[in-house]
Amino acid sequence: MKHGSDQNFQKDYNEAQILARTFKIAIINNWEFV
């Protein structure tokens, strides 16, 4: 694995983690209002 692609993977992974966390918070907030 090249260092460049490894950095891209890390960036994509971090963005996916942030997206998942935001998505989770949105779901939890929606459940509170149901």
What are the SSEs and their pairings?
Elements: H1 3-33
Care to describe what's here?
The protein has 34 residues and is mostly helical. The chain contains one helix and no strands. The mean pLDDT is 83.
Give a brief description.
The protein has one helix spanning 3-33. It has 34 residues and is mostly helical.
Proportion of residues in helical segments: over 70%
Summing up helix and strand content along with how strands pair, one would put the structural category as mainly alpha
What is the C-alpha radius of gyration, as a whole number of Å? Answer: 15 Å
Alpha carbon gap, first and last residue? 46 Å
What is the element string, with H for helices and E for strands? H
Characterize the biggest β-sheet: none
User: How large is the share of residues in beta strands?
Assistant: under 5%
Number of strands: 0
- Can you tell me the overall shape? rod-shaped
In round numbers, the mean pLDDT is 83
Poorly predicted regions are none
Q: What is the tally of helical segments?
A: 1
Tags for this entry?
single chain, 1 helix, mainly alpha, 34 residues
